Amino acid sequence: MITDINDEKPRFRSNRYLCEIPENSPVNTPLTFLGNSINEVFDYDQGVNGTFQLLIRDHNEIFEVTPSKVINEANFLIRIKNSSALDYENNKTFNLTLVAREIVKVQSKKSEVPVIINVLDRNDNYPEFSKPFYEVWVPENCKEGTTVAWVQALDDDSGNYGTAGVRYTNLAGGIADLLSLHLVTGIITVKNAGGSTWDREQVGRHYLTVEARDDLGTGNRNTVQLIINIEDVNDNPPIFVQNKYEARLMENELEFELPLRVEARDADLAGTENSEIEYSLIENYLNFSIDSHTGKIKPTHPLDFESFKGPNSESVRILHLTVRGADRGDPVLFTEVPLTIYLLDANDHSPVFDREVYNLTIPENIPGGTSIFQVRAQDADGSVPNSHVVYRIQSGASDKFTIGPENGVISIARGATLDPDTTQPRTTLYSLHVIAIDGATGENQKNANVTVNINILDVNNKAPSFIDPGTVAIIENVSVGTVITRVRANDMDSSAKLMYKIDATSCQAKNERGILLKRPDFDCETWFDLDGETGILKVAKLIDREMMESIVLTFIVEDIAAETDEPQIDITQLVIKVEDVNDNNPKFRKPFYRFSVTENSKNGIAIGSVIADDADKNKTLIYTLEGRPEVASLVYLDKDTGDLLVANKIDHEMYDWLNLTVKATDSDIPPRSSRVELFIQILDENDNNPFFLPEPKVLVVAEDAYIGQRIAILEAKDSDSGEYGKITYLLDRISSQGKFSLDADTGVLKVADLLDRETKQNYLLVVEAWDNYQYGYNNGESRNAFKHINVTILDVNDNEPQLNLPTTCISITEFHEPGQVITTIQAQDADDPETENGQIILDIAGGNDQNLFVLDQINEFSAEVKTLSTLQGKHGNYSLILRAQDLGRPKFTTKGTLPICVTDFNDHAPEFLSPPHNSTLKVPENATVGSALVQIVAKDEDVGSNGAVRYRLKSDPAGHWKTFNLQPVSGILELRLPLDRSKQKIYDIRIEAYDLGVPTALSSDLDLTVYVSNINDYQPQFMIDEYLVNFTENKSAGYERRRLPETVDRDELEFDGPIAPICYFIVGGNDGDFFQLNALTHELTVTNPLDRETQDEHLLWIKATEDCLSPPNNQSFFDTSDDTLLKLIIKVKDVNDNAPKFVHRVFTGGVSTVTSFGTKFMHVRAVDPDYAENAEISYYLVGKIQMTLTEGLENLQRAPFIVEKDTGSVQLNFDPQQGMKGYFDFMVLANDTGGLQDMARVFIYLLREDQRVRFILRQQPVELRNRIEIFREILGNVTGAIVNVDEFRAHANHDGTVDKTRTDLYLHLVNRKDHSILEVAEVLRLVDQNTERLDALFKEFNVLDTQPGGTLALSVVQKAGTTFWLTASSLFLFLLLLLCLALCVNQRHTYQRKLKAATATAYDSEIDGRGLSGLGGRVPNTNKHSMEGSNPMWLKAYENEWYKNSDDMSQNSERDSLDENILSSGDSSDPTLIRAQNVYQTLPPILPPRKMETTEL
Hints:
8% helix, mainly beta, 13 helices, flat, single chain, disordered C terminus
């Protein structure tokens, strides 16, 4: 077996690598290798020597290499690890080093190659404007072509992706159609000047959006806001933001509690004198000043609360002032607002005690709860609570004293004792630090301190207490009078006097064996002496330990100076241990000892034992042996037990008796000892062996020696005589293998057979010498000796060399490097390799015509075949003739053929496609043996045998692989053994996929876990179908976390091992990727701040699965039957982050002179995108109401209008009169609950009743009201006027019935230039002139007719009413005449027909000068055909006859046809259905006489 050594280092296929990667590539994107770079790395060593790591040096935080660990060879990829670091604009090139380093710890090798990475530019930057927004000022009288602004955008990308390709593509906003944007330069100029748009009185600022796109206007886009400000004149007074101001001021302070600053706003242009406001105080107490520019109000000096009159029970004084805000325009306009200042009392006086210090003395036994003293303090403050004083003990009380917080009475704490002896340290003086605190709060609170000294008197009332004397030790026989110890007791009383004594009745003594001594044998008062005053204990009599070893003495102490009735005593005990003194010698149990032992006995054989005893307490003895050293060394004596053992070989011929002395010594100091005599007899036996002479040891014989040749003579000796000294020689046949013989008597060694060194070159002969062989061998009385002789056979050149060549072709790849070893050739010669007979020379004898190979001999028996030049393109089969020749005499030569096959290179290892790495395969417990579990699929990108993939199971220490069988070709994993889930649930197996590549097969491993499950396997299930969570808008990513509900997995109930994790994935509804779900922790977070106003509810579908490696696919719908799905409803909680915005910057409305006082005629409306209370809006009228071009309003004393706070409705606050003219304008403010606000302007016009226009629409009022702003805007844009809606009414038919399907809309129009109200005729003219532009609008809103809506129509109706009565009277007389004629003729049928004709003829007369056409339905959509010059093409609107239906023709008839009314009355059989027709109610409004150019439909 040839063992690999680490002689190769890892190598890369290329010396350098050039790569590229787009800058917008995501994480894990592989880099593209350019040029001829080959992304391969290899190491020709095997095993751990050929295993190495791949790593990146420099920029390893941005890039990573895979695989990180390689065995032998592999392809590698460089992938992106941190995509955010790739930015072409910041770094166009990365230089890094790729390192391949072996994992061996000793002398590891490595290789490095440089890698250059070029970052490709992508259009990943957006055009960035030079300013975050552009704000310009344009005079309202600007001319066409005036430059408004110049916007400029830059782009960090290159080429057309960058600044060179930026184009300004769009301008959006309210006045975008009036401006012109240059596509390339970004210069914005005025295209249409003049008009109301440039009038700052209506709109002072315009907001537009400019769009820029790179890539010549087709790439990324960005926008910037353009603000155009219009200049103005001074026509608005300052308006305070609050209708009153209040402030709190603490006395003695120069600043208010909160900075007081009044603020007024002027609607005029900011930054001019028109909007510059100066503030002043009208009513000043000379105590305050105001900054005329900032409006900040400060006290001029500290105020004294006590100097202002007021009740003492109140701590506030109220001061009233007036603040005026005036602008600097011409003329000066101003507004005033009240200011209330609350002056608060400050706690500026501290409490004062009536003494500086308090001293008192009390006895220690005073009971707890007793009051002992009272302290008093006064506070000079005049208001409560500043003058209210409370007391507390700040320190020094030690929980012994308390104080009344209100009265300052100091008492002994309940349960407290003042005994100085029970306190640590002993305390006889208490210094209490008492504090008096007034009633102020916080830092304003003031206090005073005083010291109360309390002295404690001692009383002798405590018993003494012994100090534990513990245990003492004394030596026996100690002299009389020796002090043993001193007993002590403590008494806490200072006047105590203590006396000590021994209690003889409680003393005890025990001997060594623990037996109590009787009282006659032990009297403690006799043996010990105690001093009653000092407590010193002395020995009174000699103490013998052998009599008593342990003594217990009882002592009593008494305080004879006690002041109590009961005696004050204490009792304790002292334990005295009597220590031993060595005063006895050891004593042996026998006067002498005698033993016997056989000679040559083994060491450790027991001879006997000697034993001694010691009467002292320390009974440990040490035994020693005394005698002549050469004799004493033969015997071993155990020093602890006295056992005698054989220590050395004892020879009877030398010693027949051993005479020794044994000494026993105790362990005390000084030691005592005793001795005893010891006699040991030695018994005789036979004990001598034969022995060989040293030479010869080594013999040399040529391998061609003849049989019978004498080699050597062997000789042995024996010290015994007779038969014990006679030697017999024997040769072991196994060691000689029949090649040698030995004479038994003489010891002559000869050659017995032919020798061959190549078969065996050394013989180790075993020779035996026996004494008494003839008589004692069989009965075991013979002794022997052995000798080894090494016989070496000398070589003779009698063998030819042999070549060991492979029988099959040696395959190498065409990429085999020049000079690299192909194979190693071995040759051998059976002769001695140490001589020339066995040494060989190797060379190439033929077959190397192209000189591609070379043979390098590395030693006498081997040579390496190497490539001499590159083999690329020279693949095929080569046969080299190799020759081997030895150096002996005579020489022998051998030749052989070496086949070499140059093949393609195997450079790809198999890669697993399925299943994924480290995946778990669930197999039911009842799976049958031989069933297919899963198919392992791997592919190899090589071709031929290099790409042929085979599979096998790798063995594991636990033997899991034995349970399964893997088909080597198909890769189907089969069950080999039956499964038993109760014995084993989890199998961990490793599958190897290898190719059939040459010369080296490449392989990959796949780790697979097989989990044995029950027959019924379950998926994790949600217990609910829907779950609601809340997130707050505008919170940063990760700030809020919501944990989703847990699932129930019935598999967990049967799985004893670690529970597999349940992973949650978002499988639907996450549009915009606003949410991120941690699969393992089940925590949901937002990736970007949410905006409730954009979307207040999100819906996610959550999937629970045990497969955490493969995220499930998104689902298009929510399956309610799938319990692994959860519908997650996310509500976005609102915060007040949006200010209210008026739906219009300018509101317009009108009031007629007949409108009643208190009428709510219009609404201002603002919208707040926020929710609930954050969206609650309050409306306020701010500033002064300006009246322009007014007549008849000079005596108006009150505000003409009131804005309702909650609804924004505008209410009329005066009685309009005939002849009043003009218009009003004022500012309204919308404020939400968070203080955010917006302002708009309101124009209200006074109009006459005859200045309104009525539009009749086929819509219900509710539908029209929701869309009226669209109607107003389009009509206003077409006519160029301001359109104001006055009223909605359900349409009334001519017969007085209400048609709920139609609506009468009353409007009036205002000239934008001079704010004058357009007359009805002018409005109708504008409508008719713009018929085509209004076509789509009138169709969308189903406009049926346009009519005057004021008093003119009413007067014509009254005029028509008179004509109607005259006609009706004539008709009545005519009918009466017809009735007389009918009675005469008496023909009913003729009467009815004539009556019908007569009535038709009668009603054919002109009622109002227009004929019956005035009673029919009017032309829908417009009144254009009732005027001269109308266009008949308008009739195309009726081609589809959308207005005709059965309801219009019958049931819902307007009863405008007299013929129809009469026929209906005549045919009806029910007389109740016949109703009188009121002609006055059926007449339509009368229009001015016009020429009809079309017929009625």
